[in-house]
């Protein structure tokens, strides 16, 4: 180390790049979104749970695998999450009459009402977080984020 606490091997540029990179920014953005969610949307319903209710509200009943794929849930978290939603009376889970191994998930009236009630607050968080962008920048930012997510899935 020299007198400025930077490594003599030149790695400080790499460290700075890592600290200013996608990971820390994505984490900070996620933390801000989570804080706003708890303050403005719901303290007992998570974003992924809202996504599940929203998908069922807009697309109707579907099997657990399809729902997990559409909601970008991994298999290890989908079943426990759906069970929590079922216990709260927000979804119903039944076996498919045609294939007893398949589970069908249906939103209940309570789940439909909750999704409908919370949707404006969810949109409000996005609006608040994107308020410093003009409409063109918002579209570009969201488009680039979607592209990064899709590329990472491949």
From TrEMBL:
Family annotation (Pfam families): MarR
Source organism, top-level taxon: Bacteria
Domain HTH marR-type: residue ranges: 22-150
InterPro entries assigned to the protein according to its UniProt record, in alphabetical order: HTH_MarR-typ, MarR/SlyA-like, WH-like_DNA-bd_sf, WH_DNA-bd_sf
Protein's name according to its UniProt entry: MarR family winged helix-turn-helix transcriptional regulator
Species in which this protein is naturally found: Streptomyces aureus
